[in-house]
Write a structure and sequence with these properties.
With about 40 residues, the chain is an alpha+beta fold. About 25% of the residues lie in helices and about 40% in strands. It has one domain (about 5-40). It has one helix and three strands, in the order βββα. Strand 2 (about 10-15) and strand 3 (about 20-25) form a beta hairpin.
């Protein structure tokens, strides 16, 4: 699955490939860590 990272007012918003908002994070690296944690094993 592809994800879109958007910077908004000092934080990063993460959307899925269909444009659905998933979560926000303080940085791109934090967002990537969160995505890794959400992936099923």
């Amino acid at each position: 699955m592809d994800y879109v990272f958007k910077s908004n007012n000092g934080h990063i918003e993460v959307y899925d490939e269909s444009g659905k908002f998933l979560f926000s994070a303080d940085s791109v690296s934090e967002a990537r860590e969160e995505l890794r944690a959400r992936r099923p094993e």
